[in-house]
Amino acid sequence: MEIGQRVLLCLHIQLIIVVMVLNHSNAQGLKLGFYSETCPNAESIIRKTTYGFISRAPTLAAPLLRLHFHDCFVRGCDGSVLLNSTKNQAEKDAIPNLSLRGYHVIDAVKSAVEQACPGVVSCADILALAARDSVSMINGPSWKVPLGRRDGRISKLSEALANLPSPFFNVTQLKQNFASKGGHTIGTSHCVAFGLRLYNFSGKGDADPSMDPTYVTQLKQKCKPGDITSLVEMDPGSFKTFDEAYYTLVSKRRGLFGSDAALLNNAETKAYVLQASRHGSTFAKDFAVSMEKMGKVEVLTGNQGEIRKHCAMVN
User: Fold this and answer.
1) Considering 12, 68, 70, 190, which one is annotated as catalytic?
2) Domain residue limits at 93
3) Is 70 a catalytic residue?
């Protein structure tokens, strides 16, 4: 089984979905040790450079994981989320991506790799490895990352809007959206992503009845009506740590998003939430499997795409 978890920050979801379908288009072009001859130190350079940032700012792990997620959900894992807008608006300028962070880390890693092996390692591979390494650096699981991705040349704002999941999805929509993707956990969210659940759930100035009333009161102290800037921890007390706390919160009706509450309305997802909230759950293993599969979605390999010199622009 593949388990899809949650998206981080503004206009994203926090979830766990069992999915059975996976699109591994061109994934056969990926392999472990892809750069063993062309750039043998690539993976160690990426890990060392990423560690330099995470050791100083552990909260960067979530944004790096989120960058990888948002990349793979639009045009596959091709580094398109890293491209700046030119004549056309790029993915990074879409509303769900405006709060993305960590670009400077990827740029620094790319620079370090380019010094060792110019024109060899793709930005897409760097992003996949940095996401894996940053999670393991905050005591999360690790997973295999076969390499050989090529960088895409196209990035469209409209495609980001069309493909990234909504925090308002129900379970059916979540399953459809995550059927060929993956997921992740840890981080924070802007109040705007769940504000309607606090102040105007049914259009009558009420709160979402599926949310614990005590939790609603606590959130209202942090998020005032119309607040679009404040951040709230997804997992109070453990938002910097990779753990199962999210599932305990959802089981107690303390998930931030409507998509969190929806997980308790489906027998399959509710069973997993309850299982994952218990000691000794298989969440870390499930998560690693999910991320490994997501990293293979619709990749460019062989002679497709290019190896960018700079991750924010095509060659």
Assistant:
1) 70
2) 41-163
3) yes
